[in-house]
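[Automated response] Your request has been received and processed.

Submitted sequence:
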Amino acid sequence: MNRAMLVTAGEAVGAVAMLAVAAWCWTRGVSRSEFEPVVPGAPPFTSVDYSGTWIGVAFAAVLAAGLLALDAGRRRRRASTHRGYHG
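Generated structure:
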């Protein structure tokens, strides 16, 4: 296994890891609160609060995962086209 294959595999693993980080950050950034009805007969109220910091980090992690996946694909394609070239 050469260095280029190790880098490509590392980028693929990094992309998957960044997606896991993004999912974790997203769940930390969204919180729900249930409230009882204010008036008898009214429906209960659910409030959803979003934390901009956690959502922003999740977005950055998805962006990083996408860039890692694109570069891994580029490296893999480049290695397959240069495999038989000796000149």
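Summary generated for your ticket: Residues 25 and 58 are 5 Å apart (CA to CA). Helices lie at 3-29, 52-81.
If you did not submit this request, please reply to this message.
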